[in-house]
Amino acid sequence: MTAGAKTIRYRSLGYQTDLAVLAHQGLVVEPRDAYQVIRTPENPHFWWGNFLLYPSLAADTDPQAWLAAFEQEFPQAQHRTFGLDSPLRPPEEAVRRFEALGFRLDSLAVLTAQRLGPVRPLPAGAQVRPLESGDDWHQLLNLRLAVNAGQTDYLPFAQRKVQQAWAMQQAGAGAYWGAFVGRALRAALGIYQAGTHRDERLARYQSVETHPDWRSQGLAGNLVVAAGDWARRDLGADRLVIVADTEYHAQALYQRLGFGVAEPEWALERPPSPAD
């Protein structure tokens, strides 16, 4: 992570661990007076690898000022993304001004655990293990395309993310785990070293995805537990961190496995318009 000689401290455990994982991918952090510029030069189309991180959203914030700052820092970008480094819910009046410009407020839950509980049995013929062969990684790309089939122009982004995951695993920063039914990859996730917090070594989960035809069959839960056990043993992690959309069912799964909610996380996002 590049930020001059100064060590940057984050209030949000979610953003802290997000950026710690991105640091394995060539992250650049550029502090400004009012915000931090978060860049992932190797993947400029990654919305949440290229964004502005503000300390918070004040009630009198002018959205146009934030947009002008984003466009100055990312003149080629078609997306607009702002992270909020505060667990406090943003003021409704400020959120409404951003929503009027096409933004969505993302409400996320940052969950942590030291140990994970029991999990339902795997389906017959299934196993969980780290990705190893070239075919495993090719299947990961196909899985990501199947999970995100509704997104336009997703292939270049997915290819770059798979390449970065492979490189991080080769460097020893973590591993990508898969749930295989026979030889077919049906679910996958990444787990990586993510720095320290209050003297505890952290491991952060990334991109828990299950093929649409194989959901609700215990694959994701088994992956989360097996990868977490591996991270505690092989990465030396004291605490596991995972982030879930509060409007998606994954949070309930993680809590059944033994995760507890540590804090909320907030973000403002506007995807590219169809005309872009």
Automatic annotation (TrEMBL):
Q: Which UniProt keywords apply?
A: Transferase
Look up the coiled coil feature and give its residue ranges: none
SUPFAM superfamilies reported for this sequence = Acyl-CoA N-acyltransferases (Nat)
Domain (N-acetyltransferase) spans: 126-276
In the record, what terms sit under GO molecular function? Answer: acyltransferase activity, transferring groups other than amino-acyl groups
The record's annotation in Gene3D superfamilies points to: 3.40.630.30
Q: What domain of life does the UniProt record list for this protein's source? A: Bacteria
Which Pfam families does this chain map to? Acetyltransf_1 (PF00583)
What is the official name of this protein in its record? N-acetyltransferase
Q: What organism, scientifically named, is this protein from? A: Deinococcus radiophilus
